[in-house]
Write a structure and sequence with these properties.
There is one protein chain. By secondary structure, the chain is α+β, with helices and mostly antiparallel strands. Among the domains are: about 100 residues, Elongation Factor Tu (Ef-tu), domain 3; about 55 residues, RNA polymerase II/Efflux pump adaptor protein, barrel-sandwich hybrid domain (OB fold (Dihydrolipoamide Acetyltransferase, E2P), Beta Barrel), CATH 2.40.50; about 90 residues. It has a 6-stranded antiparallel barrel. Strands 3-10-8-5 form a 4-stranded antiparallel β-sheet, with no helix packed on it. Strand 14 and strand 15 form a beta hairpin. The relative contact order is 0.14.
């Protein structure tokens, strides 16, 4: 019997030399790809001039001051005792709700009951003395009348009449003395009666008992100062926070500003309040001056408790939907040799922003005509004062903004310059202002004062791969973003730093 066999040809093995060539090819391709990427990035960097940029965008800017304070009731009353004695009953405990006039504790009244009984007895004794004095007075009066009649007929001596008159006056004085004693004893009795009423400690307000420092059987000694037995919060649905604000920030805090705060008991919730009072009593702690600011808080659910620590932020300014740039753009200064030459376009005049203010006032035809006439006249005078061939200022001049270490506003925004500009604007637009109603006059004056007092600073835009200097008006800042206006629009690329490698 024959057995068929099949011969299988073994698969050829790849040599180590062939695997080395494959690995070398992969490495060459990776190096080539990295070189292409670096070349592209170098081209992009060359096209952008090696600058890091950010986009001018519209958004909200919220400026706030942070502070810490303690929550407390608006009105907290310390209830004490005006009399000394043994506490027999305590009728209110912690967290109890009490009403005005409710008895919350009692002091042993036996001492004052005895004083009242003693006083009543003294009054009765004084009344008996008064009856005796009145009887003596009646007798003395009759004796004086008789002797006076006999004296007219020369039947008694004048000295007897004088003695009778003295006796009558003395009896009258005794009556008055007895009446005074009665009044004194009644007053003493009323004092004892008041002290008896004070043995019942009553709540002076409607509220909640916060603390209780007395127990039944305890002796209360009210000698020089009334001991505090209870502390009652009048209304926990309305609370307050007293914040300590640094003197550097207190000028920005005004009554009515919004406040947001959180407490450790509710870390995921934010509560709201408003500034109710800025107190003038400064506190000096280690040479740090702070002022107390009272924040009113609504607590309808009464989940906020007295004594909680509140981490609050006072919103001192808020600007919605404004053009803003990162603060780094205002800090950027070009390196030496890279500073572009400034042109007249970098200068921004307050006059150029007046049409925007006028447009916000919604002027009628007559008011608009008066405004256009005043603005045209001002521009003509400004053009007449500027020489026709004035040379362009060099980079780093006052037109380009302040040097390092100088004020942001620059020389053009000094106090004297602002005063002169204010007087010139008031004179030039006086006729236009008279056409406005009182409400629009106030708005015009406020906007004009804000415009002239505004700070200005240089900013650099990246245009066609090159920096272009402009001067912008600076508004509010929250530490990260700053409001700007002027020759800048939404979407412009502002330079925030240089991306060039150090040489």
């Amino acid at each position: 019997m024959m057995t068929a066999t099949t011969n299988k040809t073994p698969a050829p093995r790849r040599s180590p030399k062939w695997r080395g060539r494959l690995l070398l090819g992969v490495v060459v391709l990776a190096v080539a790809a990295a070189g292409v990427y670096l070349w592209q990035q170098r081209g992009v960097a060359a096209g952008e001039g090696g600058y890091r940029t950010a986009t001018a965008e519209r958004g909200d800017i919220r400026v706030s001051i942070s502070a810490t304070g303690t929550l407390g009731a608006i009105s907290t009353v310390d209830v004490g005792s005006q009399i000394s004695g043994l506490v027999t009953e305590v009728l209110a405990d912690f967290n109890d709700t009490v009403s005005e006039g409710q008895v919350i504790a009692r002091i042993d009244p036996s001492t004052f009951d005895a004083q009242i009984a003693q006083g009543n007895a003294a009054v009765q004794a004084a009344q008996a003395s008064l009856a005796t004095a009145r009887a003596a007075a009646i007798n003395a009066e009759a004796d004086f009348r008789r002797k006076s009649e006999l004296g007219e007929r020369q039947l008694v001596a004048t000295s007897d009449i004088d003695l009778a008159r003295a006796a009558r006056d003395q009896a009258r004085a005794q009556v008055n003395s007895a009446q005074a004693q009665i009044a004194q004893q009644r007053a003493s009795t009323r004092t004892s009666q008041l002290n008896l009423e004070r043995t019942e400690i009553r709540s002076p307000v409607d509220g909640v008992v916060l603390t209780r420092t007395v127990e039944p059987g305890q002796t209360v000694a009210a000698s020089l100062q009334a001991p505090v037995l209870f502390q009652i919060a009048e209304d926990l649905s309305k609370m307050e926070i007293v914040l300590a604000i640094d003197e550097a920030d207190i000028g920005q805090v005004k009554t009515g500003q919004g406040v947001s705060f959180g407490v450790d008991a509710f870390p995921d919730r934010q509560f709201r309040g408003s500034v109710q009072q800025v107190r003038l009593s400064a506190t000096n702690t280690n040479n740090v001056i702070t002022y107390p600011v009272v924040v009113a808080v609504d607590n309808p659910d009464q989940i906020l408790l007295p004594g909680m620590t509140a981490n609050a932020e006072i919103e001192v300014s808020r600007r919605d939907d404004v053009l803003r740039v990162p603060n780094a753009a205002l800090r950027y200064k070009p390196a030496e040799g890279d500073a572009p030459v400034a042109t007249g376009a970098a200068r921004t005049s307050p006059t150029e922003e007046l049409p925007r203010i006028a447009a916000a006032l919604e002027l009628d035809a007559n008011q608009q005509a008066a405004f256009d006439e005043a603005l045209g006249s001002m521009r003509e005078r400004a053009a007449a004062r500027v020489p026709a061939a004035a040379p362009a200022p060099a980079a780093g001049s006052a037109m380009m903004g302040p040097r390092r270490g100088s004020a942001v506003a620059g020389a053009g925004n000094s106090g004297a310059m602002r005063q002169r500009m204010q007087e010139r604007f008031n004179q030039q637009f006086a006729a236009f202002r008279e056409t406005l109603p009182d409400e629009k006059k106030a708005r015009w004056d406020g906007e004009l004062a804000s415009l002239l007092a505004a700070r200005r600073a240089p900013l650099y835009l990246l245009v066609a791969g090159k920096p272009k200097p402009i001067m912008v008006r600076i508004g509010v800042s929250d530490g990260s973003w700053t409001e700007v206006s002027g020759e800048i629009t939404e979407g412009d690329q502002v330079i925030i730093g240089s991306g060039r490698p150090a040489r």
